[in-house]
Amino acid sequence: MKTAATVSLMTIRVSGVLLILLGIIIWTGHADQVIPVHELLGFVLVLSLWVLSYLAARAGVTMTWVVVAVAWGLLAPILGLTQQGLLTGDWHWTIQVLHLLIGLGAIGQGENLALRMKQVAATQVR
After folding, report:
1. For the chain, percent helix, then strand, then coil, each to nearest 5?
2. Element spanning 18, H or E
């Protein structure tokens, strides 16, 4: 299970960095053609977060943290796939910033679960 958690966390990290880079490129208007790649990587990140959530639940992490991570993983693609129609016009940038924050939060949720898994494992060794 430790290997699966490490792979999930590393997938979250790598896809997260790539998503941020692609998001910046898309946001500046230089590469709308990479939006499908951005969406695919977003799904990879969310699926990895859900796998890590499952592993965290099995490892004994408090269910509150697991549920928050699963819900966050559900929120990210909902916002990402609907953002084009939300608050269009001069204020659309606020939706884009919210999308960025939700994405960063998804990465943070993965980091949080991994940390809590280590803490649970450390208390079980004693």
Report:
1. 90, 0, 10
2. helix 2-27
Q: Which residue has the tokens 């004994």?
A: 60
b/e burial code for range 100-110 (CB count within 10 A of at least 16 → b): eebbebbbebb
Give the tokens for residue 41. Answer: 């990587």
With contact defined as beta carbons under 8 Å apart, do 68 and 109 qualify?
yes
5-43: pLDDT as tens digits: 999 999 999 999 999 999 999 988 888 899 999 999 999
Q: Rounded to the nearest 10 degrees, how much is the dihedral formed by the CA atoms of 8, 11, 13, 15? A: -140
Which residues, other chains included, contact 63 with Cβ-Cβ below 8 Å and sequence gap of 6+?
57
The total of other beta-carbon atoms located within 10 Å of residue 66's CB is 22
- Number of domains into which the chain is organized: 1
- pTM exceeds 0.90 for this model: yes
Domain extent, residue 72, equals: 2-125
